[in-house]
Amino acid sequence: MNVVVIGAIAYACSIVIGIIAWRRSVHLGRWHHAAYATACAGTLLALVVDFHAALLLPALSLSVLPFWSGRTRIHRVIGLAGSSGYLYVFLT
Predict the structure, then answer these.
(1) What digits encode the pLDDT tens for the residues 70-86?
(2) Which of 1, 29, 51, 52 is surrounded by the most beta carbons within 10 Å?
(3) Which residues make Cβ contacts (< 8 Å) with residue 26, sequence separation at least 6?
(4) Could you tell me the pTM of the whole model?
(5) How far is it, in rounded angstroms, from Cα 16 to Cα 1?
(6) Is residue 43 packed enough to be buried (19+ CB in 10 Å), middle (13-18) or exposed (0-12)?
(7) How far is CA 16 from CA 48, 52, 69, in A?
(8) What is the distance between the alpha carbons of residues 40 and 44, in angstroms, rounded to a whole number?
(9) What is the pLDDT of residues 36-59, one digit of tens each?
(10) Would you say 28 and 74 are in contact if contact means Cβ atoms under 8 Å apart?
């Protein structure tokens, strides 16, 4: 379960950095991409070490996010929807 917490924290950091960049209209690309890479690694590690089917949702959302610009609404919706997988793991 500790690996899942690490993945969730990395995912949350990526979301927070993305929201800050969006709301303040600042360019935080390097920080956001570093957090994104960490979230990908953390989610993959959580899937391998402590598999839970709900972790497939953040993994799927992380895999399709690069296809949409960060300026689009769909990018934000997919990113937030992926976090519900972590939420479900913690609630069950």
Answers:
(1) 788 999 899 999 999 99
(2) 52
(3) 20
(4) 0.87
(5) 22
(6) buried
(7) 25, 24, 17
(8) 6
(9) 999 999 999 999 999 999 999 999
(10) no
